[in-house]
Specification:
Layout (H helix, E strand, L loop, with lengths): L2 E12 L3 H12 L4 E5 L15 E2 L17 H13 L2 E2 L15 E3 L1 H14 L3 E4 L3 E9 L2 E11 L2 E12 L5 H5 L4 E2 L11 E5 L7 H13 L12 H6 L16 H25 L3 E6 L10 E2 L7 H5 L7 E4 L4 E5 L2 E6 L8 E3 L11 E3 L8 H7 L2 H20 L10 H10 L8
Parallel strand pairs: 1-2, 1-9, 2-6, 9-18
Antiparallel strand pairs: 3-5, 4-5, 7-8, 8-9, 10-13, 11-12, 14-17, 15-16
Helix pairs in contact: 1-3, 1-10, 5-7, 10-11
C-alpha cells in the first residue's frame, strides 16, 4: 500500500492519555509545532474513554498542612478549570481521610475529555484522533537510533509524519518498541478492570436474595468471581461500576491475548447480567467501557530503572523532574493485592533518565510504560503522576529544541527544572 507523506513537526506525541495530554500542552505552550496522535476518538485514555474517572494523587497527606500538594502545573490547572466548569469534585487535600482514594479528584468523563480538547487547542496542538500509530521509521547513528517519522492509519490510507523529537505515551510503549527499544514485562501481569455502568435501586434490603444467587453462581463457576470482586451487587451499584472487577490474563501488549481476554470478559458480564435478571435484583447494567483498562504491560528500559526500594526510600534522583505519590499497589489474579503504604512526609520522585529509552536518540516516554521495576511501576502509574511526567518531558523536549539539539541526553536537567518551575510545576529538590 502506498504511504502518503504528511507533515513535519517539532514534536510528535503518541497517545492522548493523561501523560500525553500534558506533554502535548506543555510542548505546545512552549511555542513548538506539536502533533498529538490518538487511536481513540477522544483524549484522556483511562480517565475518559475507559471510565476510570478519578485523578489520584496530588498530595502527600503526611506533609505539614498547607504544604501537602506535590503535583501542580498543568495537571492542577486542568482540574481547577474542570471544577470551575462544574465537572470535577476536588477534595480537601489537607483533610485526614482514612484511605488514599478519598484524595482523588472525581471528574465527569465527557466533560473531562472536552476540557482536554480546549487545553490542547489553546496550546495550538494539532490533533489527530482516530489516527493511531502503526509503524516508525528509524536511522542508525553513532549516538543511537534516531526516530525519523511515524506511520499512522487514516480513512484515506497510511500517512507518514516526521518530527524532531517523539514522546511515547502509548501506555504499552509501542512507539519505543517498534523503534527497537528493549523492554521489561512481568510473567504475571496485574489484572485490568472493565468499567461498568449500572442503574437501579440501591436499597440494601433488596439485594439479599440477589447476592445469594450470585454466591451460588460463583460456586458453579469460580471464574465469575473476578467480574465482581466484592461479591455483592449492591457494591456494584453504589460504586457506579467503578473499579469493581478484575480482568485476569489481560496483556495489552499482545493483540491475541487482548482479543481472547476481552471476549471472555464480555461473556462473564453477560453471565452476571443473567444472574441479576433471574434473581430479581433491582438493578441493570446499561453499558460498559469499550475495552478493559490495564494496570501493567511493557515497561521501556531507560537510562535509569527506578526500583521499589528507591520508591519506598523516597529517593530524590539527581535528575528528578517531578514528584509522585501513591502506594505500592500490585493487584493479583483472584488473590489479595500487595499493598505497601508510604507513611512520612518524604515524597518519592521520578527520574528524567527513566523517561529516556536506552538506545533511542530522540525519544522520551511518559506514563505507565516508563523505566521501572514492577513494584515502583505499580505506584507511579496513577493519573496525577502520569500528568506530572507528561509535563516534564514536554518541557524537556522544548529545552532540547531551544538549544538546537534532538539528542535527549544533551539536555541539561537543571535547565529543564528551571523551565518547569516557570510553568507552575513543582520540582523535587535534593
Amino acid at each position: 500500500m502506498e504511504i502518503r507523506e504528511g507533515n513535519v513537526f517539532d514534536v510528535i506525541v503518541a497517545g492522548a492519555g493523561c501523560a500525553g495530554f500534558c506533554a502535548a500542552v506543555q510542548a505546545g505552550r512552549s511555542g513548538l509545532n506539536v502533533a498529538l496522535f490518538e487511536h481513540f476518538a477522544m483524549p484522556g485514555g483511562s480517565l475518559t474513554v475507559l471510565g476510570s474517572n478519578s485523578i489520584d494523587q496530588f498530595n502527600n497527606p503526611h506533609r505539614p498542612v498547607g504544604d501537602r500538594i506535590i503535583i501542580s502545573g498543568i495537571a492542577m490547572e486542568y482540574v481547577l478549570e474542570l471544577e470551575r466548569r462544574g465537572f470535577a469534585a476536588i477534595p480537601d487535600m489537607d483533610a485526614p481521610y482514612r484511605v488514599h482514594w478519598q484524595y482523588g479528584v472525581k471528574v465527569n468523563p465527557i466533560a473531562a475529555a472536552q476540557c482536554m480538547d480546549d487545553f490542547l487547542l489553546q496550546a495550538n496542538v494539532k490533533l489527530f484522533y482516530r489516527q493511531g500509530i502503526v509503524a516508525v521509521d528509524t536511522t542508525k547513528t553513532q549516538n543511537g537510533t534516531r526516530v525519523d517519522s511515524v506511520i499512522v492509519t487514516t480513512k484515506n490510507g497510511l500517512v507518514r509524519h516526521k518530527a524532531k523529537i517523539f514522546i511515547d505515551c502509548t501506555g504499552d510503549g509501542d512507539l519505543s518498541v517498534w523503534a527497537g527499544a528493549k523492554y521489561m514485562i512481568s510473567q504475571e501481569l496485574q489484572p485490568g478492570t472493565m468499567r461498568l455502568y449500572p442503574a437501579g435501586n440501591s436499597d440494601a434490603a433488596l439485594f439479599e436474595k440477589s447476592d445469594k444467587a450470585w454466591s451460588e453462581a460463583t460456586v458453579k463457576d469460580p471464574g465469575l468471581r473476578e467480574i465482581l470482586c466484592s461479591g455483592r451487587f449492591e457494591s456494584l451499584l453504589s460504586s457506579k461500576g467503578d473499579n469493581t472487577n478484575h480482568i485476569c490474563g489481560l496483556n495489552t501488549a499482545d493483540s491475541e491475548s487482548r482479543s481472547d481476554t476481552e471476549i471472555k470478559t464480555r461473556k462473564q458480564i453477560v453471565e452476571m447480567l443473567s444472574v441479576i435478571k433471574s434473581s430479581g435484583a433491582p438493578m441493570d447494567i446499561i453499558g460498559s467501557a469499550p475495552e478493559s483498562a490495564p494496570r501493567e504491560s511493557r515497561r521501556i528500559e531507560g537510562d535509569i530503572v527506578m526500583t521499589g526500594d528507591d520508591y519506598l526510600n523516597k529517593r530524590i534522583y539527581d535528575d528528578a523532574v517531578c514528584y509522585t505519590y501513591w502506594f505500592i499497589d500490585i493487584h493479583r489474579d483472584n488473590k489479595p493485592s500487595r499493598i505497601v503504604y508510604l507513611n512520612d512526609e518524604k515524597t518519592p520522585s521520578i527520574s528524567l533518565g527513566a523517561m529516556r529509552p536506552k538506545g533511542l536518540l530522540n525519544v522520551y516516554t511518559a506514563g505507565r510504560c516508563v523505566s521501572a521495576d514492577r513494584e515502583s511501576q505499580s505506584a507511579i502509574r496513577v493519573k496525577a503522576s502520569c500528568m506530572a511526567m507528561g509535563q516534564a518531558v514536554g518541557a524537556a523536549a522544548a529545552v532540547a529544541l531551544r538549544n538546537h539539539t534532538v539528542n535527549t541526553r544533551l539536555v541539561n536537567t537543571d535547565e529543564v527544572k528551571d523551565y518547569l518551575r516557570s510553568q507552575g510545576a513543582i520540582v523535587p529538590e535534593r
